[in-house]
Amino acid sequence: MRLQIRASRLPRAHPPVQLILQHQEQPQMATTVDHLEAHHRYAVIRGFTDANDVRVPLETTGVIRLISIDAGFTLIHIDWERDRANGETMAERLTFSLAATDGPRNNHMREYFEKGEIVLPPRESKPPDAPEPEPARDKLSAPTLDRFERKQPQEELLLDELAVACDCGPVFHRPIYPAAHLAAHACLRCGAVTVTRQLGDDGRFHGKPWTAYWTVPTNQAFVDWLARFPRIAVNYSGAPWRWPMSASLVRYPTLLYPADVRVADKRELKALEVMLQDAQAALTRAHRLAFACGDIPDIPGDLPDDFRSFATLRRALDLRPGSDVDTLKAHAHLLSSSCELAASLLLRREDACALMMDWLNAKDDDTFSAAIAMLRDSRRLFSSPDDKRLIRPVLNIMNSLPLGELKDVPGRVESCQKFEALLVAVADLGANGREMLDGLADLQKKLAKKDAYTADAIRIVINELNGIDNRPAEYRLVASVAPPSWRGR
User: Fold this and answer.
1) Mean pLDDT score, 295-309
2) How confident is the model at residue 89 (pLDDT cuts 50, 70, 90)?
3) How far is CA 465 from each of CA 257, 435, 436, 480, rounded to the nearest angstrom?
4) How far is residue 162's CA from residue 203's CA, in Å, rounded to a whole number?
5) Which residues contact 234 (CB under 8 A, 6 or more apart)?
6) In this predicted structure, what is the pLDDT of residue 311?
7) Nearest residue to 400 (alpha-carbon basis) of 419, 423, 426
8) Could you tell me if 377 and 389 are in contact, meaning their C-beta atoms sit under 8 angstroms apart?
9) Is the peptide bond before 143 cis (omega within 30 degrees of 0)?
C-alpha cells in the first residue's frame, strides 16, 4: 500500500515526494517520484546530466530498481540497470536535488523519462514442498528454547528468525495486538509469549532481506498481562488500491485469535483460521476486536511506557456510549490503538450524526481525526447511500475547505490532507449515491489546476465507488470488481 510523506515534514522549498509502503512480515520502504517506480523499464526522451555529472544521453534505456531519498530530504537517488550498446547492463546511480529548478526533478520527471513495461527482478526457484519434520532448531538447538518453559527469557538472546522463545516453529507465531514500541508475539501451539526487539535489512542493496529478533528482559508479570490480548494476522496485500497516504488511513484485512486458543499442528491451525474467518466475516472491525479481547485484567502498576498502546486499548474496553465525550474522542483518534472501538461507541450515541458532522468542520486536527474514524464506519446512521443527511453535509465540508497553496509545497492545496481523509472515509463507507458521485466529479474539476494529486485521488475514489478496479493491469486478479453494497457491510 501507499504512504505519503506529510508535507509539513518536508524541508522548505521542496515539492512533495511520494512513498509507497510495501509489506511482507514487516514494512519495507520503496519510493516513487512522479511516474517513476522500481522494476519498470524507462527510455530517456531528453538527455540530461545529474547532480554528480553523470551524463545520460537521449534514447538511453534501463530498468529502475530502487528510488530513495537521502536522510536529509535533499537528494533523490535512482539506482538503475542501464542498458549498454553491447547488450549488457551497467548498475548506475543517478542523483537529483530536491531543490533543483531545471533538469530532471520532482513533478518534471515525465519530461525526461518515458515509462515502459514492468521488469521484475529474477527470483530464486523454490524447491517443491516436502513433509516437514518435527520442529527443530539448528542455531539454538543446544540447549533448546523449551528450557524457558514458555516464560520470558530474562537475558538478551538472539532468536534469529523466530519471534517467540519456543521450539514450535514460526508457522505458529503471531503478533499480539496492538503494536507497541517493543514487539510481543505469541505461539498458538504452546502459548509462550515473548517480548522482543526486531532488527533487519530489507535487502534493497543486495537482494537478501532478513529479520531477526532479540529478546528483551521484561518483568514476567507484565508479559503475563500482555498474553491476555488477542493475536493478529494482517493481510498486507488486501487493502484497497488507492494512492500514497498516511498509514493511519490505510485499513488492512485482519484475523484476530482469542488469547486462549491453541492448536496441536498445522492442520488444526488451518481449521482454526477457517473457523475464525467465517465467524468474523459478518462483524464490524470494532466488534471483532471487542470479542477477541475477552477478559483482560486491569493495567498493572508501573507498566513500562513501551506498552502504552496496550494500556490505551485496555482503558477503552471499559468505555460506554455514555462515557465522557472528550475521553471517547481522544480514544477515537486515528493513531490510537482503541480508535475503532471508541468510534463504534460514539456512533451509538443519540447525537452521533450531529456530533460527527460538527467535528468534521473542526479546525482542530485531533477532533477532525476522531470524526473521520466515525464517518468511515457510520453506515448504521443512514438509510442508504443517497441519504441527504450524509451526502450534502460531506460535500459541503469538502467544498468549504480552503484552497490556498500549501506553504513551500507547490502544486498542493493547504487542505490536501483533510481532502484525502474525507475521500478515504467516503470510499470506506461505500457512499456511491448519484449525488455524491456528481459532487465528487465537480470537486475534481475544481481542484484539477490547483492540486492535480488530490484531483487524481478523487478519480480513484469515483472509480472505486463505481466498481472499477484501480489496480494496474499486471496486478489485477479479475477484470473488475463489484460496486460497494450498502447493505453488505
Assistant:
1) 95
2) confident
3) 32, 12, 10, 12
4) 19
5) 23, 175, 252, 253, 254
6) 97
7) 419
8) no
9) yes
Asked if the bond preceding 402 is cis, omega within 30° of 0, the reply is: no
17: which 3 cell numbers?
515526494
Cell numbers at residue 195, please? 517480548
Q: In this structure, are residues 236 and 24 in contact, taking their beta carbons and an 8 Å threshold?
A: yes
pLDDT digits over 201-252, tens only?
766 666 777 889 999 999 999 999 999 999 999 998 888 999 888 889 999 9
Residue 424's beta-bridge partner residues?
A: none
Which of 448, 487, 440 shows the shortest CA–CA distance to 464? 440
Mean pLDDT value across residues 372-386:
95
- Alpha-carbon separation of residue 487 from 379, 382, 426, 463 (angstroms): 9, 11, 15, 20
Nearest to 218 by CA among 173, 160, 158, 155: 155
CATH number corresponding to 2-118: 2.30.30.350
Q: Which three cell numbers stand for residue 221?
A: 508479570
Question: From the CB of residue 207, how many other CB atoms can be counted at a distance below 10 Å?
Answer: 11
Q: What average pLDDT does range 109-133 have in this prediction? A: 73
Quick one: cell of 352?
452521533
User: How far apart are the C-alpha atoms of 342 and 34, rounded to whole Å?
Assistant: 38
pLDDT tens for each residue of 242-294: 988 888 999 999 999 999 999 999 999 999 999 999 999 999 999 999 999 98
Please list, residue by residue across 216-244, b when 16 or more beta carbons sit within 10 angstroms of its beta carbon and e when fewer do: bebeeebbebbbbbbbbebebeebbbbbb
Are residues 250 and 420 in contact, defined by beta-carbon separation less than 8 angstroms?
Answer: no
